[in-house]
């Protein structure tokens, strides 16, 4: 399927680039609907890869790439369940999103996240599954999960450790602060900075460059350069589930769900 | 090195320009959330613009307990 228009996302093959556009208001929160459509995308990716060199993941919403997991959905879905059922539901969701992000991480195509605005939590984890992050100067990156008594659960810690020095990983995780794109570039998280609103254009230029190279060679280089930390990813799921059972987490989620703000846990 | 008054003025100028309100309608003691009617996403955007303008890093948690422009300026001042 060379193109698809869904409720939360769409994709199309533009010459040799697959463009995956996120468009779920208000901030591309990753809930069950987006997960299902991401799974459809992954199912189509092998077919798309036959005629493509690169994937660009981007958002058409003005203020954000993605604000992360749909915590309101998580709270409301968890509320009527007992603790065991909540945990089962969370673990299942995590396994499914990990499968999506692992497939994106593993595709032979060169993957580029074109980021603007908020790139938080699960949204940050989606960007980290890509080979390159191109960010406009207004982008901000954050792992706010400790504010909710959790850790990143979509593979963020192993992927961040794969890419960055431990001091930066500790800074992001243990303070939960957001980092602007300029700082993110200086620590090696962001490959290229773009002017405000220009991340997608820069990503397209980069994809056009990548398309000049022999596909098999690029794919082999990527496999060599970028191991997927499977064991750590599994341990992250286990730790997330262990933390999720704490009463403080549901209380944190309740406060989140009762606010109408996109990022009520700030500052 | 800027004085706190200069920093405060620059914060007010930036806020007025970014949120397209008359500069004279803002004062240092105004609650910027209420005055500008901004949410968390817009506050983050303002934070990024302030970081670029002053060439500093200003972690979000520095905004805890900060709601007026003058107090925001003192947090910025401590990073100059």
List the helices and strands and how they pair.
The complex is a heterodimer of chains A (267) and B (80).
Chain A: E1 3-5, E2 9-14, E3 17-22, H1 32-49, E4 54-59, E5 64-66, H2 71-78, H3 83-106, E6 110-115, E7 118-120, H4 121-128, E8 132-136, E9 140-142, H5 156-163, H6 166-175, E10 178-180, H7 181-186, E11 192-194, H8 199-210, H9 215-225, H10 230-244, H11 247-258
Parallel strand pairs in A: 3-4, 4-6, 5-7, 6-8, 7-9, 8-11
Antiparallel strand pairs in A: 1-2, 2-3, 9-10
Chain B: H1 4-19, H2 32-36, H3 40-54, H4 69-77
Helix pairs in contact in B: 1-4
| CATH C-level category of chain A | Alpha Beta
Number of strands of chain B: 0
Helix content of chain A: 40-55%
Largest sheet of chain B: none
Specify the number of helices of chain A.
11
- The overall average pLDDT of chain A, rounded, is 95
Largest sheet, strands/sense/barrel of chain A: 7 strands, mixed
What's the CATH superfamily of chain B, by name? ACP-like
Proportion of residues in extended strands of chain A: 15-25%
User: Which value, in Å, is the CA radius of gyration of chain A?
Assistant: 18 Å
If classified by CATH, what would the architecture of chain B be? Orthogonal Bundle
Under the CATH scheme, the architecture of chain A is: Alpha-Beta Complex
Query: Uncertain segments of chain B of ≥5 residues (pLDDT<50)?
Result: none
Global morphology of chain B:
globular
Number of domains of chain A: 1
* CATH superfamily placement of chain A: 2-enoyl-CoA Hydratase, Chain A, domain 1
**In total, how many beta strands of chain A?**
11
* Fraction in beta strands of chain B: under 5%
CATH topology of chain B: Non-ribosomal Peptide Synthetase Peptidyl Carrier Protein, Chain A
